[in-house]
Amino acid sequence: MSQKDMKVIIAGGSIAGLSLALMLEKNGIDFLVLEAYRDIAPQAGASIGLLPNGLRILDQLGCYERVLAESEYPVEKVTFRDSRGKIFWSFEDFNERISERHGYPCVFFDRRMLIQILYDKIQQKDKILTSEKVVTVRNHPTHVAVTTQSGKEFMGTFVVGADGIHSAVRQQMWETAQKLDPTWIDPSEKDATYACIFGISKGGPGVEKGTLNSVFNEHFSYLVPSGPGDRTYWFLVRNMGKTLHGSEIPRYTKEDEEKLVKEHWDDYITPTLQFSDLYKHKISSVYTALPEYVYKKWYFQRIMTIGDAAHKFEPLTGQGGNNAIETSASLANHLVASLKKNDSGDLSTTEITSIFETTQRQREDRTWSLVKQSHARQRMECMETSVLKFVARYIIPYVPKSVLTDRWVDTYASGVSLNMLPAPERDHAIPFYDELLRAPSARGPFGYLLYIVFAALAVVAFQLLFAAGKVNGTWSLVREAVINRSIGDLSGSLRESYTGVQSIDKILTTLVSIFLPAITSSHREQPLQLLYFLSSMLPLIAIFTIEGYRQKNRWSMIASPSIWGILYQLRGIGFIAPLYFAASHFVSRKSIFLLVPGREVPAAKFILPALILGFIVPTILLFFPFKDTESLQAVIAAWQPAPALVSCFTYVFAKLANAAVKKSNGCNPNSPGDDMFHLRAIYQTTGTIAACIHLSVVIGCFISNEISLMQIFVPGDSFGRVETLAGGVFNDFLLVTAASFIWSLVNIADLHRAGLSRVDWKAGLGYLMAGFVLIGPGASAAALWFWREDVMSRRKAIK
């Protein structure tokens, strides 16, 4: 790549400015940094928190190890404290969880330390000029001219304003735009609700190392993280009383600061540490308003703003500096991509504007979202309303850690990185979005429509099972059979006792009276229909059990497969399965569901034995040629809890194995490390059984003149009058198949929208239709889950 005349002028040796300079240097692009201060890294009284989204870019730039070394103590523990400094919520293993999930910790150190690290990493230090405050910027058709306070003029291809909240470059950009297009800029679009004294204390009493403390109060709050050595950083944030706009936002003096300090002198940070203890040992402090904004326009012609000159956050979430680095990376990415297409380096104003526009488009929604999040968090910690006060006091103490860790995904994983530099190899459980095939997206309105579809299928099943049975006389025949203890043409009578518990025996007697005619029917289609149906259900029961024991589904609506099994045995799977699929659809509704940890099924090794003992063996016995009806009725009654027994056996086997291991002081038998082997075996076994029976039934129907494929798969008129109980038994196979098909298609689409698969819903539709015809619905579900499991297990290595 040749950039013979290409030069980027960067106004401001800030974190954004020096990050961009280092990125340009690594890509062989000429640059010049103009810094207003005499020193490149002055002690300006501020600290910075670095998070995974910023640290990953710094890692690409070769700065990460030094950042870790100089910050000394990653945040190990996060605490929320009340006005007396007492902890009411804490996150003890914060560093372990954030590093495991996203590959990087959270660290705090002086802002000047990061600036120094970036400066030291830049090789061409002669291109960083101090004491050169930018005064004017003028656009020309082929270049930009920058004049500094010293009277020097510098020429470049374009200028980037990284000169902070009171950006001179932004002001020049506004003035230029005002002359040419008055609608381009709205200078009043920044707001400020809060003001803050932030400072660094040293040598006196501080907080425990590796802790980050948030102190909740009414209309003010504290953020107090520990720093390296004997440093403690602190932020006292107060509500200014109303939201101010543009020029209304005040600038505070040292006298204003001292007045506010006096008001809060005796505030508690911890039960043994007061604000006065920190302030008395401060080495620097600044009192400033906290504007919040994402400007509508970050650029005009050959001028671009980044960092605080383009977007500003509340300090509470620490995203200001991290997003400044992200925007620098985005600009570098699009500049390098443009230069690859135009290797002369002679970019026109139109091409430069396109680079700027693309950068803002990529970054704007994310920065707005994070600005709003930081504002909402600040309102909460200042307990601005009676509702927020109630939530802070009575709800937050019981909020599980998973609520916070799930929010990290969009916060950190969706961040920008440098396209042209290799990604560091750091273990992380959750992939960054740019490691995926595409950024995750929401289901949208179609997701809500699916709830209606599943509900409609359940209503239809209910009508066919209960309403039709009443109309066609089936339930009258069932009552007669139970009252008369009749079993049709078979010898013997209907049993009334199985367990000795009258209420349970009554249910079992009713179910036996329904199943017995179907199994013993002289019409061959009916037993075959039942066998086909149960074999197709085998993979679904396996999947229901797996999902019930999957770690990420704990405490969700699908976490109790035994309860679902009881429900669809008592109310019909045609009615209950769509409701299960709707519940599963709800549980997986978030775009990040498939990305968060918890895919593992620790009890996986016990599910196949439980399926064999709890479902496969009882189902085989249903079709065993018993000589007497008493034994057959006992088998039918024993089969009824089979779907629920699978889950129960899994639980019992796991508990027994745990107990045995504990007794012998061995390792945990439920370790998720080897679950993939067992899960594959489950899908292969159940899928093979379902496929074999599907093929046997279909081929058998084609070669036999006595068995009708249509009568097996398509029921007759459900509301037509029936003469015998065998003729009235409702088969809900088609409804279960339809619901299963839609659910399977949704899961294929979910893998695609999560960025984990290249197979979209249209291709998935074709695969499912072919699978349902060739190997049957049960085997297709098993094959889908086999593939889905493999995709989820490989989610970190997709690129």
From TrEMBL:
Gene Ontology terms: cellular component: membrane
UniProt domain FAD-binding: residue ranges: 6-344
Statement: the UniProt record of this protein carries the keyword Repeat: no
Spans through the membrane: 448-468, 530-549, 561-583, 603-624, 681-703, 724-746, 766-787
Pfam families: FAD_binding_3
Source domain of life: Eukaryota
GO MF terms held by the record: FAD binding; monooxygenase activity
InterPro entries to which the protein is assigned, alphabetical: FAD-bd, FAD/NAD-bd_sf, FAD_mOase_fung
Family statement drawn from the similarity comment of this UniProt entry: Belongs to the paxM FAD-dependent monooxygenase family.
Protein name (record): FAD-binding domain-containing protein
The organism of origin for this protein: Penicillium cosmopolitanum
